Amino acid sequence: MFGLVDLSNFYASCEQTFRPSLRGKPVVVLGSNDGCVIARSQEAKALGVPMGAPWFKVSHLAQSAGLVALSANFPLIGDMSARFMSLAAGFGHQLEAYSVDEAFADLSGIPGDLTLRGFKIRARIRQWLGLECGVGLGGTKTLAKLANLVSKDAERKPGRYPAHLAGVCNFGDLSQAQLEAVMRATAVGDVWGVGRRYGAQLLELGVVSAWDLAQLPPSLVRKRWGLVLERTVLELQGVSCIDLEAVPGPKKQVGVSRSFGKGLEGLDGLLEAVGEFAARAAVKLRKQGSVAGQVFVFAQTSPFRPPPHFSRGLCVPLASASADTRVLVAAAHAGVRAIFQSGVEFNKAGVFLLDLCPANRRQEAFDFGEMGSEIDEQLMATVDHLNQRFGRGTVLVGGAGNTRRKTDWSPKQSRLTPQYTTRLSDIPVAKA
Q: Is the pTM of this model over 0.85?
């Protein structure tokens, strides 16, 4: 038995938790440079605000409907996600953090009423974090995902599903007739693993609902659409094909890229930005226990501004695969100097670490110094620990960013809220 705990409207809900005056109001969270909508509250969805909409196209709703727009507060989101995962870990034997706001749990062999257990974990998350969530339980991960959808829609859209499934939906409690009715009420495009292209093709064949999809012969599905959709059909039929991934595997590449709030023309500003991107990517690399053999760096102008346009990247190979921030920053700087062109206003840049592999793998290329000893590894671990404890940017490698200057290139966040849980000066004060 699998369980899925999924937070509702996570980015917007975090803001509403710390600003109760926003509850019940339409709220959207904007992405890089406050450009597009990346998250919506339920009230904003009801207004018809589409995901990914440019802010300038929906900004008129601020006056006519009271729409509130906020900049993405990533430190707050990251901290609230970590708190959520710590609570969700008590739901089952093992936990798979599927995304920042949802997690699968292994419930096999747990005695007692699992539906009641779902309501308890939901109540704990609401009480401790002030966030709402849906809980779905099923014999496979796909069924748990579908049950989670039912738990949310039964609450948000009365009449679509039976009211007793709101909040927590356990397919294991349903009779075969009840399960069939629920799956017939679910559009095939809402099934986890059915993309837009597959959904359109299935509709053309008269496969309208999740129940219709579950009745297809798996061998036929595999022959026409491939293994992925066959696995989805088998999971809908109760055959578990997707194991819990308690520890996600290492990524094949890690990187950081950003659009700048204001264009950069000089080399110094670009070096500083790319240096910080390389330092952030190095932290991600060390977290997954990998080293990089190459550093790819790029810089470009905005395609929406008048010429001259510029877009160029360079891959810098390392003498030895490394996760040392100093090596990676030096390589990124070497790449920037090679591709830099004066007289250009850069709008975006990024760093990607490639050729990832376990430590101690060597290859011939540029050498940025003899690094990689046990002392160097301890140094990087200490830097990561200090930045995690006291905030990102507490300890920096020279050339990897300067908190006093980076406002020249950092993304525009004119609607940013306080970092309520990660910065002492921003901790909310309750007055009684």
A: no
